[in-house]
Structures are given as structure tokens and as C-alpha cells.
Q: What sequence folds into this?
């Protein structure tokens, strides 16, 4: 790519092709949704693990992050 | 050009750092409200002659390790999502550089993922909310987040489509109007949740909600500023290395 090399000036951002972002977006979405599920909803509205320990452990965070808790 | 993998790793790490900062707000502003609400809950249970609930996790663990873990897990997840949104916006927001792009993405994320849903379904401290409706309230809250994301997608599409005709500034305003109308209509159509007990102190409720807002604000602001600063530095170093390899005129 022929670009004039201007040292230390604001580098103009080059776009990242959507094709390249897509697989990472799917990966981040799956990991992110699992993480947010455990903080925001596990042992509240629904549960994968029985009991209340996960709910009680993240209790204050769930309240303060804005999720309905109980 | 930064690789997608490095952006995702940067986003998740920055999310962890942001969570540490958010913990400071949660500890000093949020915990006193949670403690006040729990003492109201316990006083009510005692007055009703109910036995005290067994403590599965002690209050000390809840407000330290539990709260910190919840924030770190949420921060890492948000940071990951943020890096994807940043990658899509990078170089596509007119002449905005890395820092301004990151800040714009963080501001939009804060408004769409947190502010929009909580204006309809505000966060509540312990002792507020009927346990029997937790399923419905959770569904409505997550539905509101999803609607806000869809509205933002439609607004972005509209703004980009209008930008050749209206110019960047007015097209952005048009996109914001599209977003506001879609959100306003969904606010009007979705049911209200009205479960705050009449005798719950309004002051505790207000400061709990302000604290929640503060926790999320610091989280998003720190992600946007740190991610933007680090990416800007990475791009500058890249530009400098490029200039050394190909001095002006030889490129």
C-alpha cells in the first residue's frame, strides 16, 4: 500500500475488513454472553447449577450493575 | 493495522482494569446503600416473625471478593464486546483517530447497553422487588437491552445511508433521532414494573440507583479512555517504525 510516511503525525486509521472481524465477534459474543449470564442471571430467573451459592456470591455486583436480582 | 486478536485481548484486559476502578465506586457509593436496604429487609422479616435466612455466603465475602469477581467478569466481557465494536468503527467514523473513536464507541455503548434499559427498568437494591416476578423482570430487562441494540443498529444503518446526502454531522443527528424514536416507542409498548414498597426510603433508593449509574459510568469511561490511549500509542509506534523502514520518498 503506497502511503506517504509522515513520522509522529496522527496516523489515519485503516479500516479492518468485516470478514476479518466476524469470526472474532462470534467468539467474543459466546464468551461474553456466558460470562454476563453468570453475573447477571444464573440462579435468579433461571439456573444451570442448583442452589443459591453463585447468586449469593455475585449478589452485590448483580444489584449494582443494574440486573434484576431477586 | 492492529490485528483483531490483539484488539480483543486489549479490550478484555482493559475491561479488567476498568472493573478495579468501578469497584472503588461500588465500595464507597454502592455498598452503604446495599447495607441499608439489607437492614430494612431483615427488620421486615423479623417483624413478620420469619426466621433469619441462613447465610450461604457471608456479607463480608459478598461485598469484597463476590462484588470484585462480579465486576471483573462483567468488565472482561464488556471489554471483549467493546473491542469488536471498536474494530467495526475504526477508520469508519470520518476523520476520528483511535482515541476519539474509542471514546465515541464507549459513550454509545454506555447509552445503549446501560442507560437506555435502566431508564425503563431501573436497578433496585435488596428488599425491593417481588421474588415471584424475577423471571418476568429479568426477561423484560434483557429484552430492553436487545431492543436498544437493534435500535442502535437501525440508527447506524440509517445514519450511514443518509451521510452522503446530509453530511456527517446531520446524518449523525438523524441517526440519533431514529434511535430515540425507536426507543421511545418500545418504552411506551413494554409493561411498567412498579414493585417498590410504599415504605421503602426514597433516599436509599435514589442513592442506590445513582451508585449503580456511577459504577457503570466508570466502567465504560475507563474502557473507552484506556483502550483509545493504548491503541493510539500502538498506531503511532507502527507509523514510526514504518517511517524508519521506508523514509519519505522511498515508500
A:
Amino acid at each position: 500500500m503506497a502511503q506517504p510516511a509522515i513520522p509522529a503525525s496522527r496516523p489515519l486509521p485503516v479500516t479492518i475488513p468485516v470478514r476479518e472481524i466476524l469470526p472474532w465477534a462470534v467468539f467474543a459474543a459466546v464468551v461474553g454472553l456466558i460470562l454476563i449470564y453468570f453475573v447477571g442471571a444464573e440462579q435468579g430467573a433461571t439456573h444451570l447449577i442448583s442452589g443459591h451459592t453463585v447468586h449469593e456470591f455475585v449478589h452485590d455486583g448483580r444489584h449494582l450493575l443494574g440486573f434484576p436480582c431477586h | 493495522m492492529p490485528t483483531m486478536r490483539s484488539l480483543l485481548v486489549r479490550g478484555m484486559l482493559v475491561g479488567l482494569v476498568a472493573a478495579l476502578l468501578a469497584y472503588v465506586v461500588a465500595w464507597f457509593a454502592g455498598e452503604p446503600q446495599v447495607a441499608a436496604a439489607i437492614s430494612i429487609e431483615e427488620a421486615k422479616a423479623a417483624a413478620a416473625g420469619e426466621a433469619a435466612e441462613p447465610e450461604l455466603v457471608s456479607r463480608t465475602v459478598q461485598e469484597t471478593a463476590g462484588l470484585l469477581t462480579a465486576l471483573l467478569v462483567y468488565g472482561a466481557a464488556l471489554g471483549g464486546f467493546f473491542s469488536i465494536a471498536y474494530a467495526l468503527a475504526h477508520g469508519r467514523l470520518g476523520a476520528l483517530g483511535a482515541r476519539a473513536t474509542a471514546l465515541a464507541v464507549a459513550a454509545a455503548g454506555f447509552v445503549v447497553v446501560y442507560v437506555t434499559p435502566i431508564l425503563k427498568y431501573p436497578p433496585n437494591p435488596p428488599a425491593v422487588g417481588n421474588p415471584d416476578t424475577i423471571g418476568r423482570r429479568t426477561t423484560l430487562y434483557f429484552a430492553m437491552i436487545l431492543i436498544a441494540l437493534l435500535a442502535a443498529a437501525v440508527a447506524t444503518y440509517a445514519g450511514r445511508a443518509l451521510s452522503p446526502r446530509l453530511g456527517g454531522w446531520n446524518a449523525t443527528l438523524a441517526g440519533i433521532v431514529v434511535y430515540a424514536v425507536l426507543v421511545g416507542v418500545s418504552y411506551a409498548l413494554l409493561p411498567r414494573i412498579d414493585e417498590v414498597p410504599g415504605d421503602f426510603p426514597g433516599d436509599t433508593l435514589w442513592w442506590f440507583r445513582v451508585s449503580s449509574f456511577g459504577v457503570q459510568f466508570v466502567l465504560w469511561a475507563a474502557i473507552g479512555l484506556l483502550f483509545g490511549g493504548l491503541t493510539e500509542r500502538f498506531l503511532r509506534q507502527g507509523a514510526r517504525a514504518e517511517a524508519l523502514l521506508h523514509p519519505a520518498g522511498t515508500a
